Amino acid sequence: MKVKYLGTAAAERVPAIFCKCEVCEFAREHKGKEWRTQLQTVLDEGELLIDFPGDSFLHQWQHDIDFNDIEHLLLTHWHGDHLYAEDLALRISGYGQDLDKVLHVYGSPFTKTFYDRAFELEGRFDESRLVYHTIRAYNPIEISRYKVYPIPAQHGNFQEDCLIYAIVDRETGKSLFYTHDTGMPLEKDLQYLATQGIVFDFVSLDCTGQGFEQSGPVHMSLKENVHLIEKMRQLGLVHDETIYVASHFSHNGGLNHEAMQALSEADGILTSYDGMEVEF
């Protein structure tokens, strides 16, 4: 399995679109890995795309990725930095031409209301171009070559409107735990994953709070990441070679890339950056 982070920031990006804090000014001066766009991730060279933020057009240009070739889009939730459905609506006939693939979109019932709104603004849906598949927590589904286990995120309305995912490649047996956006997953949800017999090879960790003690109920910090990893170890959900990567950073976390990298690597966690690729 190959994971590529097209973007690694929270909603405001880094530098934030309207901010002159120390982190943002440092990013403007140094650029490179300090610049972060909204979180979006692609698996296995386009086999599965996770989320579609407003920065998707920029990602297409930055990373030479052709969204026309992607047939499966998995949505974590309905916030605009993870679903900018107005751009998805531009895939309908009359806007996009000569498309030979249908894009299958997967998300919660509540997320679908935000998806539908964009097409209602256009005055039509076009299921010859895009089809939305409603998924629910604890109901595994097959998407392309993957088996996907939706888990409630501790985010949004806390009513299973936001989801995190366990993703297992049925061809290779490799597995990914994708935890964006969420506070600390509930013990019962981790135990549920353990009953499925999954042992993760890769864990992508929400780290919006960076070096804070905790990041509130809807995100995690590095210390909370470490606590989550320990819980997963106790439940047998990870192994000695599991790769851990922190992502979804906010300028309000207070750390630039170099400082975050030094802090996270002391705990055996990699710090992501836009364009980072990991194959396992």
Quick recap:
The protein has one domain: Ribonuclease Z/Hydroxyacylglutathione hydrolase-like (Metallo-beta-lactamase, Chain A, 4-Layer Sandwich), CATH 3.60.15. The protein is α/β, with parallel strands linked by helices. It starts with a strand and ends with a strand.
Structural descriptors:
single chain, 280 residues, alpha/beta, seven-stranded mixed β-sheet, RibonucZ/Hydroxyglut_hydro, Metallo-B-lactamas, Metallo-beta-lactamase domain-containing protein
Number of helices: 7
Which percent band covers the strand fraction?
25-35%
Low-confidence stretches: none
- CATH fold annotation: Metallo-beta-lactamase, Chain A
Domains, number: 1
How far from one another are the termini?
6 Å
Spatial arrangement of strands, main beta sheet: 6-5-4-3-2-1-14
β-strand number? 14
Shape: globular
Mean pLDDT: 98
The CATH superfamily appears as Ribonuclease Z/Hydroxyacylglutathione hydrolase-like
Largest sheet: 7 strands, mixed
CATH class: Alpha Beta
The helix-and-strand class reads alpha/beta
Provide the gyration radius in Å.
18 Å
Order of helices and strands: EHEEHEHEHEEEEEHEHEHEE
Helix content: 10-25%
Which CATH-level-2 architecture? 4-Layer Sandwich
Domain Metallo-beta-lactamase: 62-233
Protein name: Metallo-beta-lactamase domain-containing protein
Pfam families: Lactamase_B_2
InterPro entries: Metallo-B-lactamas (IPR001279), RibonucZ/Hydroxyglut_hydro (IPR036866)
